[in-house]
Known about the structure:
Blueprint: H1 12-32, H2 45-56, H3 66-69, H4 72-82
Helix pairs in contact: 1-2, 1-4, 2-4
Amino acid sequence: MFYLFTKKIVSDFQIIILAFACVILLGGILLMLPVSSAAGLWTPLSEALFTSTSAVCVTGLVVHDTMTYWSIFGKTVILLLIQ
């Protein structure tokens, strides 16, 4: 008997790691946008990715003060990343 999908290309562990990476990358991209900062400026990639990674992993480390630097949209993105 011939099975088309007998061999798994990606393991379950790799799917979890890939999902984490995708969520962190998407959060970083959203936090880079000018709408995310209160001043309306672009956030550097390193700072946006650091904040996104910290929120997803629930570390609590921040580069900028969350209350003053991020706009309502940015705070919402961070809140969703924490969830």
